[in-house]
Automatic annotation (TrEMBL):
Location in or out of the cell: Cell membrane
Segments crossing the lipid bilayer: 12-35, 47-69, 89-110, 130-151, 172-190, 196-216, 246-266, 298-318, 339-358, 378-398, 405-424, 430-454, 466-486, 498-518
One of the protein's GO biological processes: cell division
Name of protein: Cell division protein
Matches recorded under Pfam families: Polysacc_synt
Presence of keyword ATP-binding: no
InterPro entries xrefs: PG_synth_SpoVB, Poly_Biosynth_Transport, Polysacc_synth
Keyword terms of this UniProt record: Cell cycle, Cell division, Cell membrane, Membrane, Transmembrane, Transmembrane helix
Any one GO CC term of the record: plasma membrane
Protein species of origin: Niallia nealsonii
Lineage: Bacteria, Bacillati, Bacillota, Bacilli, Bacillales
Length: 542
């Protein structure tokens, strides 16, 4: 694949991911209005299961399949990839159906692990229902991931990106429409509305799958023409050998993809138990939903943006490492870490400063105080989320992906060990602390591996990180002053006032931060000529 085509394909996939995540964020506003707090509580129990399933399907298999097909296509062995694809359709269909049955049949036991009926508003029976509703998506998602990997292996990123967006749109339309009809037209129960909302994952998967089938039919003739040029020299490679290669390649990506959902799963399983133990079962589910679902979806925003920029540099790191070009390895790693910090630090601090109007806009005034406190504390953890994703990707680039599994397992162990004691001491804030500590340990392991195996020094990143942190502190002080002044005239009691508070303060904070970056020339070091083009287009005076 040419460099320009690689960048174009990466851009298409990144754009599709960003659009999908944006849609997945903003639907929560009307959904929360339809089903209320109790409905959102129920939904988040199934959301963790759904997140793990989607992460496994989208993080590992497509990339592994695409690498396999791309590798053998480059050798002229097109029939190998087609043979894998045909057998994979059967395997993934069976795997999806078995996974569906496993989750559906074990849902009562999963529900008993997640929740007890004591002192909580939700019941085991209700959680069982919503988990079973989301399990239907497992029938299609693995099959869909295989087809996406097949297209990506043929250097065609459009079908994956478009199917991803269509899947999300169909899911959200069905989710909101179904829940609204149940509540407002049929006058049904919250449980029924939430079950429809979780079942929407299956309907969305059908939409995404239909897009992929359409693309396959449209391009089948061209794909078949490739078989005419097949060299046929590797006919001795068996299907078990292919699948072994795919699983070995996919495993690290799967672990990275499910890292965040696994941390959420630990909270889902342990939070209610700890809160009931200290006599706070009555507010446990509300607090769990606020930090494990509602604020989490907001915190992920800067993570998605930062990793999208930073991960684009990972192929360059791989190429330089394979070529044994230490100078380029160091330069690319410097750029990756600096861009990550440059974007994530101010974004996470900004979220923390503006926690109250942001939470108000998304979730209304109900539990506004608790939501604000949780979001304010949770926002800085976005830096750790981003660092983990990028350091894990770098380990892939330097061919040390085995350590991603080790670092994640150690991080999860730290989370499991500390979660209940910290929750008993500080409630929701304790769970956030345990998450931060778990991620911090995983990141430290990844950084040590990068230092040793890539022979990399963090001195420059540390110096620039201090500079970026200084800019962020100045921005934070400026935004705090502006925010306090605006609250003399505006309040978060209304949506309009909250929106004005958010927009005006965020705009001034961004201008202050960008001004400092331009004046010190840091932005030119990080983004080169693009920084100058942006400056001219926006007619910036500095």
């Amino acid at each position: 694949m040419s460099s320009s085509k690689l960048l174009r394909g990466t851009f298409i996939l990144t754009l599709g991911t960003i659009i999908s995540k944006a849609l997945g964020l903003f639907y929560v506003i009307p959904f929360n209005m339809i089903v209320g707090t109790q409905g959102t509580v129920l939904y988040q129990y199934s959301y963790v299961v759904y997140s793990i399933v989607i992460s496994i399907a989208t993080a590992g298999i497509p990339l592994a399949i695409s690498k396999f097909i791309s590798k053998y296509n480059a050798m002229g062995e097109y029939a190998l990839g087609r043979r894998l694809f045909k057998s994979g359709l059967l395997v993934m269909t069976c795997t999806g159906f078995i996974a569906f049955l496993a989750v559906y049949l074990t849902a009562p036991y999963l529900a008993e692990i997640i929740i007890t009926d004591d002192d909580l508003h939700s019941t085991v029976a209700e959680v069982t229902t919503v988990v079973r509703a989301v399990s239907f998506a497992l029938i299609i998602v693995p099959l869909m991931s295989l087809i996406r990997g097949f297209f990506q292996g043929h250097e065609s990123m459009g079908p994956s990106a478009i199917s991803q967006v269509v899947e999300q749109i169909v899911r959200i339309v069905f989710l909101l429409g179904g829940a609204a009809i149940v509540i407002y037209v049929l006058k049904g129960s919250i449980l029924t509305a939430v079950s429809i909302a979780t079942f929407a994952a299956f309907i969305g998967a059908i939409g995404g799958f239909a897009v992929l089938l359409w693309y396959f039919r449209k391009r089948k003739a061209n794909l078949d023409n490739l078989l005419l040029d097949d060299k046929g020299q590797l006919t001795d490679i068996s299907l078990p050998t292919m699948y072994k290669e795919i699983l070995i390649s996919a495993a690290p990506f799967v672990f990275v993809g499910i890292a965040n959902p696994l941390f959420q799963l630990v909270d889902t399983v342990t939070f209610n138990l700890a809160m009931v133990k200290i006599g706070l079962g009555a507010v446990s589910e509300t607090a769990l939903t606020i930090f494990n679902y509602q604020t989490h979806k907001i915190v992920i925003i800067p993570v998605s943006l930062a990793t999208a920029f930073s991960l684009a540099l990972v192929p360059l790191i791989t190429r330089a490492f394979v070529s044994n070009d230490q100078t380029s390895v160091n330069h690319n790693l410097d750029q990756t870490f600096q861009i990550l910090l440059f974007i994530t630090l101010p974004a996470s601090v900004g979220l923390s400063v503006l926690a109250e109007p942001i939470y108000r806009l998304f979730y209304g005034t109900e539990e506004l105080m608790l939501g604000t406190e949780v979001l304010r504390m949770y926002s800085p953890v976005a830096i750790l989320f981003s660092l983990y994703s990028v350091t894990a990707a770098i380990l892939q680039g330097i061919n040390e992906q085995r350590f991603t599994i080790l670092s994640l397992l150690v991080g999860i162990l730290v989370k499991l060990t500390l979660n209940i004691p910290l929750i008993e001491r500080w409630e929701a804030e304790g769970a956030i602390m345990a998450t931060a500590l778990g991620y911090a340990v995983s990141i430290i392991i990844n950084l040590i591996v990068i230092k040793i195996y890539a022979n990399y020094s963090f001195k420059l990143v540390f110096r620039r990180g201090v500079l970026i942190a200084g800019f962020t502190v100045v921005m934070m002080i400026g935004t705090e002053i502006v925010y306090k002044l605006l609250t003399l005239f505006l309040s978060t009691n209304s949506v309009v006032s909250s929106f004005l508070l958010l927009i005006v303060t965020a705009l001034i904070g961004a201008i202050l931060y960008v001004f400092l970056a331009y004046r010190t020339k840091l932005i030119y070091i990080l983004f080169g000529d693009r920084a100058e083009r942006i400056k001219r287009k926006l007619h910036l005076p500095f």
